[in-house]
Each structure stands twice: as C-alpha cells, then as structure tokens.
C-alpha cells in the first residue's frame, strides 16, 4: 500500500501508525535519511495490500453512530456503534485497517482492528449498553458479535472513512 505524507508527519509517526518499523520503511522505500521526507511523498507500507484491490470499505458516521460496510460500492450491512466523547473524540479522516487481535482483553471485547492512526481502532466491548452513545476514548466500539462478523469479512488494508 502507498501512504502519502501529510503536513506534520515524520517517518517515525508513519511507522507507528502502520505498526511497522522505521527500518522496514527505509528498506521498502530506499530512503537514505529518515529525517528527510516531504509533504506529498509516496511511502510504500510493506505488508499491506493496496486498498483499491479490496472489495470492501467501511464508512463511519460519528453523528449517526453507524458503521456501514460496503462491498464493491454497495451497502452490505450497517451496524450501531459507540464513538468518542467530547474530550476524547473519534478522529475524522481516511484510514486503513492495519492489523487485528482476537480477544485483546479488558474493555476491548472479542476483537481489535487497529486503524492507521496509533491508539485508535474498531473493537468489541465488555459494556454493550454503551453502543449508540458517545462514550469511548475515541475508538469505534461495536457489539462483540458485530465486530467478529466484520473482522471475518474485511482484510487488513480495508479503507475506513470516518466522517463527522
């Protein structure tokens, strides 16, 4: 997959967001100096497929507290979700699923799907009464059965568009 460098990003931040190492990014991109990257530069992220080759995409509406799963541009299913609260809002933007962890423990329920923004993901919950509310630390919470279904369908590299 290709990441386009945005203002304020460093190679270290890009590596963290995609859960890889600076050395892997240096190697995959023939970059000599990790301190010299520029806005608009194309960075190959090793180990992730091109999202355009994946038939699925996810759209998240923060205000509607809904996650919509699309396949080939057509709505396949909608899920109720919980989103971030005012002091820890859900980030808006375009991300991809970079990895996953079944049964991560604690409040994260039955599955964790990491987004390409460090510390954020789509996950289950040990508090199903929170679904439909703005109560999380910024992550997207789903019922455990829903996040397991979603994770069984979408591969790493799937586009996730989060909108207000």
From TrEMBL:
<dbReference type="Pfam" id="PF01476">
    <property type="entry name" value="LysM"/>
</dbReference>
<comment type="pathway">
    <text>Cell wall biogenesis; peptidoglycan biosynthesis.</text>
</comment>
<keyword id="KW-0961">Cell wall biogenesis/degradation</keyword>
<dbReference type="Pfam" id="PF03734">
    <property type="entry name" value="YkuD"/>
</dbReference>
<keyword id="KW-0808">Transferase</keyword>
<keyword id="KW-0378">Hydrolase</keyword>
<dbReference type="InterPro" id="IPR018392">
    <property type="entry name" value="LysM"/>
</dbReference>
<feature type="domain" description="LysM">
    <location>
        <begin position="1"/>
        <end position="45"/>
    </location>
</feature>
<keyword id="KW-0133">Cell shape</keyword>
<dbReference type="InterPro" id="IPR036779">
    <property type="entry name" value="LysM_dom_sf"/>
</dbReference>
<keyword id="KW-0328">Glycosyltransferase</keyword>
<protein>
    <submittedName>
        <fullName>L,D-transpeptidase family protein</fullName>
    </submittedName>
</protein>
<feature type="active site" description="Proton donor/acceptor">
    <location>
        <position position="123"/>
    </location>
</feature>
<feature type="domain" description="L,D-TPase catalytic">
    <location>
        <begin position="56"/>
        <end position="163"/>
    </location>
</feature>
<keyword id="KW-0573">Peptidoglycan synthesis</keyword>
<dbReference type="InterPro" id="IPR005490">
    <property type="entry name" value="LD_TPept_cat_dom"/>
</dbReference>
<dbReference type="InterPro" id="IPR050979">
    <property type="entry name" value="LD-transpeptidase"/>
</dbReference>
<feature type="active site" description="Nucleophile">
    <location>
        <position position="139"/>
    </location>
</feature>
<comment type="similarity">
    <text>Belongs to the YkuD family.</text>
</comment>
<dbReference type="InterPro" id="IPR038063">
    <property type="entry name" value="Transpep_catalytic_dom"/>
</dbReference>
């Amino acid at each position: 997959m290709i990441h386009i460098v945005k203002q304020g990003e460093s190679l270290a931040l890009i590596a963290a967001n995609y859960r890889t190492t600076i050395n892997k990014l240096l190697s995959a991109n023939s970059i000599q100096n990790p301190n010299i990257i520029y806005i608009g530069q194309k960075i190959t992220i090793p180990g992730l497929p091109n999202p355009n080759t994946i038939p699925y995409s996810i759209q998240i509406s923060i205000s509607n507290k809904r996650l919509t799963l699309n396949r080939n541009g057509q709505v396949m299913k909608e899920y109720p979700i919980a989103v971030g609260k005012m002091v820890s809002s859900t980030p808006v933007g375009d991300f991809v699923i970079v990895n996953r962890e079944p049964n991560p423990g604690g409040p994260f329920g039955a599955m964790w799907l990491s987004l390409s923004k460090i510390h954020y993901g789509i996950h289950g919950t040990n508090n199903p009464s929170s679904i439909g509310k703005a109560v999380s630390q910024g992550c997207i919470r789903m019922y455990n059965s829903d996040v397991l279904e979603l994770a069984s369908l979408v591969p790493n590299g799937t586009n996730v568009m989060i909108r207000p």
